[in-house]
What we know:
Elements: E1 2-6, H1 12-20, E2 28-30, E3 33-37, H2 40-49, E4 55-64, H3 68-77, E5 89-98, H4 105-124, E6 134-142, E7 145-151, H5 173-182, E8 191-193, H6 200-209, H7 230-242, E9 252-256, H8 259-269, E10 279-282, E11 297-300, H9 311-320, H10 324-327, E12 332-337, H11 342-346, E13 352-358, E14 361-368
Helix pairs in contact: 2-7, 3-4, 5-6
Amino acid sequence: MKLVALFNAxxxxxxKNELKSxxxxxxxxxxxxxxxxxxxxxxxxxxxxxxxxxxILICVGEFKAETYDELFDNIYSLNxxxxxxxxxxxxxxxxxxxxSKLFSEKTIQSIVQKAIxxxxxxxxxxxxxxxxxxxxxxxxxxxxxxxxxxDTTGIPLSKRGYRKLxxxxxxxETLAASLLFFSHxxxxxxxxxxxxxxxxxxxxxASYAFNIPPGINRNFDFSLLKNFDVDLxxxxxxxxxxxxxxxxxxxxxxxxxxxxxxxxxxxNSEYYEINDKINFYKCSMEEIRNKGFDFGYVISNPPxxxxxxxxxxxxxxxxxxxxxxxxxxxxxxxxxxxxDDFEKHFxxxxxxxxxxxxxxxxxxxxxxx
Length: 369
Ligand SMILES: C[S@@+](CC[C@H](N)C(=O)[O-])C[C@H]1O[C@@H](n2cnc3c(N)ncnc32)[C@H](O)[C@@H]1O
């Protein structure tokens, strides 16, 4: 099967590495998407174990269509009954049409849904589709070339499930994980997050250190598909669970000036049963001290001044952070913020910078080595 991984644009290189570590060598990428071949076992494994990907999709078909009749016929010709059970339906929940003759999203949506339902009704000898469950479908068209994708994930993989409580400006879990890979952090090194909020970076770091599959406690839409192989899924899940090892010694610290954020972080970390492995404590950034390590990583998501307080507050914080240069001398730092003036206020030139698109907001990752 042709599969597609969706993720935040900017993470292409990291996602390629993650796919390579899952045995995938041949892949093509475009912005925020990587295409590769794989079977059900890969779909299950990536959904359970990817730290960076948002969704894994199956490419059901690709074709050229310049008229609505061609669109209907091509959609009808696809093997929908390989994926969709007799009493289930679909939702066309994302349409992107660029430089194509067919551009009305509403009409494309209606034609595609009609063609799929006609095919299912003909195949299953039905008069109507009951829609017990609805499978998510995405349609991308570029220069009249259509790609029809079926969502195996459902709720995006960034929603691991541990963040029952959040901070005012929570960082997406996949982006928190990306900081670990951009900075090449490894579990043998101390990690310090002085603005931990709801604990996302320390929890991502600890789950990575202990090989805890991020999606181990959640559900996926592939369980709704006709080709769902529950035995294969259970084997893969058991295999991944067998690799969890929480006996490694780690030194991960998360602090925040708000006591309720510390309680939130602790509560969230209970989800993977690692609440006794991470040191969360209340502390103002100005007062944090290195706990005696010669080397380590400060990895954090300091206030941006957009969702949390204002721009002046963010600038003041970045200037105060300059004391890290002494307190965490020779350490590596990795920060994510939406501001492009971070280096100026922190008074240090980044070794590496990367823009990451995150919905309407653009983030920048700064790595100082
Ligand atoms: C952008 S949020 C971090 C969000 C976090 N990464 C998460 O996923 O929940 C910034 C955090 O910095 C904390 N903060 C703001 N000023 C601080 C200071 N001077 N010292 C310590 N923490 C501070 C806020 O309480 C807030 O939780």
